Amino acid sequence: MPSPDSLRSAIRDVIDFPTPGIVFKDITPILSDPVHFRDAITLLCDTAGGRKIDKVAGIDARGFIFASAVADRLGAGFVPVRKKGKLPWKTRQVSYALEYGESVVELHEDAVAPGESVLLVDDLLATGGTAGAALKLLEDLGSEVVGVSFLIELGFLNGREKLGDHKIESILIFD
Ligand code: AMP
């Protein structure tokens, strides 16, 4: 199994992006390196723990990059959880609080079927609002979310507390 350490050193901290006070974790150096990218996908696939996964759900937009590759590797389908107004078919939506204001994520009504096992994947867990909303969408459609996996977790924001008693796994935790 690859070591997460080399991935950690590849992440680029961008100060004050997109707004003052935010330290943005730039994952593009991982994506552009074939070994890092493959290692990240291998480590995320390992969080499935060998369980049969029917669908991997990814969160708009950087979550798609990882989730679609994980889905392919696990032999699962891929499901996009998108920001409001992007999905063309019948959707369900959940709104959630941001630091200022709110945001909305949407899922196609037929994206998952009752009883299907789903792994939810995103690039980064911050406050947990986005992943929490995605979880609600998936579970309201009757799917069984068997894990929620992140490449990066900002541990000091305690986002996991918003995700209930799900199996949460992060490859890299920053405290
Ligand atoms: P949250 O809903 O607060 O957990 O925010 C998670 C989403 O916002 C993820 O999909 C990330 O892509 C993005 N995000 C939040 N904070 C950062 C950060 N410091 N660096 C990079 N992406 C972030």
Structure report:
- The protein has about 180 residues and is an alpha/beta fold.
- About 30% of the residues lie in helices and about 35% in strands.
- The chain has helices at about 5-10, 30, 35-45, 60-75, 130-140; strands spanning about 10-15, 25, 55-60, 75-85, 90-95, 100-110, 115-125, 145-155, 170-175.
- The protein has a seven-stranded mixed β-sheet with strand order 5-6-4-3-7-8-9, sandwiched between helices. Strands 1-2 form a two-stranded antiparallel sheet.
- The radius of gyration is 15 Å and the shape is globular.
- The two termini are about 25 Å apart.
- The model has no long low-confidence stretch (mean pLDDT about 95).
- Adenosine monophosphate binds near residues 23, 123 and 131.
Query: What is the SS-derived class?
Result: alpha/beta
Q: Give average pLDDT, whole number.
A: 97
> Which geometry do the CA atoms define?
globular
Rg computed from alpha carbons, rounded to a whole number of angstroms: 15 Å
- The SSE order reads HEEHHEHEEEEHEE
Main sheet makeup: 7 strands, mixed
Strand content: 25-35%
Low-confidence stretches: none
Protein traits:
175 residues; alpha/beta; seven-stranded mixed beta sheet; two-stranded antiparallel sheet; binds adenosine monophosphate
Topology:
Layout: H1 4-10, E1 12-15, E2 23-26, H2 28-31, H3 34-46, E3 55-59, H4 62-74, E4 77-83, E5 91-97, E6 102-108, E7 117-125, H5 129-140, E8 144-154, E9 168-174
Parallel strand pairs: 3-4, 3-7, 7-8, 8-9
Antiparallel strand pairs: 1-2, 4-6, 5-6
The chain binds adenosine monophosphate.
